[in-house]
Amino acid sequence: MPLLCARGVSFAYHDRRVLEDVSFALDDGEVLGLVGSNGSGKTTLIRCLDRILDPEGDVHLNGRDMRSMSRLEIARTVAYVPQNGGVAGSATVFETVLMGRRPHLRWSVSEEDKRRVSEALSLLGIGDFASRRADRLSGGERQRVLVARALAQDARVFLLDEPTSALDMRNRIEVMDLLARLAEERRLAVVTAIHDLNLAARYCHRLLILKDGRVLGRGTPSSLLTPGMVRAAYGIEAVIKDEMGVPYVVPLRPSANDSLVEIA
């Protein structure tokens, strides 16, 4: 049984349709990359999967319809890392990451809660920042704090909205490497919206390509990342190279025709 399953997910903001009939299934241990140009529906889909938004269609968590689950039940299983925000003004890094333990807290913070927070800080390489104010960190450091908060939440499903967008090249690789390793070792299901196709190809088991709110393609990076698909999804001409068995996208120029998908 898939850990996370979406069937026919659609959503509209008032009369503007932004998602239409999106379906996929994700097992534990897998990383799914949501890719597509700005405005393709990636963020909206992630918010629908976390039930921040109430979409048409069905979203099942470990076989259970999420509409039947309370907010607390969802929070114990699903961790959401937003693209921006989520850092309280005067909170320290430790306090911010501790917020990830809220679904598990009883009357007070336990030693186990503190241990989980310290472990998450260490894994993200920000243990030295524990006593610093989170709002005084760089954008990349704050992003690491948000990922650490999700890790401390002890969830089985991670939903991340462009977790590497504010990071430099080294930190992007380190964060994606950590997410892939956690998915395998802790049997997590990870859904991440990501703009960097080459990072997605390297670390995601499968991709879901969105365009104008619809699924343009789904499958492995090797099967999907073709010149025709990149043209259709992004409106650019590109060359796809093979780097140690992983596709590598080299963008060339804007395309004159982004409507044709050629499987090549």
Provide a descriptive summary of the structure in words.
The chain is of the alpha/beta class and about 260 residues long. The protein has 9 helices and 12 strands. The chain has helices spanning about 40-50, 70-75, 95-100, 110-125, 140-150, 170-185, 195-205, 220-225, 225-235, and strands at about 5-15, 15-25, 30-35, 55-60, 65, 80, 155-160, 190-195, 205-210, 215-220, 235-245, 245-255. Strands 6-7-8-3-9-10 form a 6-stranded mixed β-sheet, with helices on both faces. A 4-stranded antiparallel β-sheet has the order 2-1-4-5, with helices on one face. It has a two-stranded antiparallel ribbon with strand order 11-12. The chain is globular. The relative contact order is 0.16.
Topology of this structure?
Blueprint lengths: L3 E10 L2 E11 L4 E5 L6 H8 L6 E6 L2 E2 L5 H7 E4 L11 H6 L12 H13 L15 H14 L4 E5 L7 H18 L2 E5 L3 H7 L2 E6 L2 E6 L1 H4 L2 H8 L1 E8 L2 E9 L10
Parallel strand pairs: 3-8, 3-9, 6-7, 7-8
Antiparallel strand pairs: 1-2, 1-4, 4-5, 9-10, 11-12
Helix pairs in contact: 4-5
Summarize the structure.
By secondary structure, the chain is of the alpha/beta class.
Beta-strand content estimate: 25-35%
Computed over alpha carbons, the radius of gyration is 19 Å
Order of helix and strand elements from N to C terminus: EEEHEEHEHHHEHEHEEHHEE
Low-confidence stretches: none
**How many strands, which pairing sense, and closed or not: the largest β-sheet?**
6 strands, mixed
Tell the overall outline.
Answer: globular
Number of helices: 9
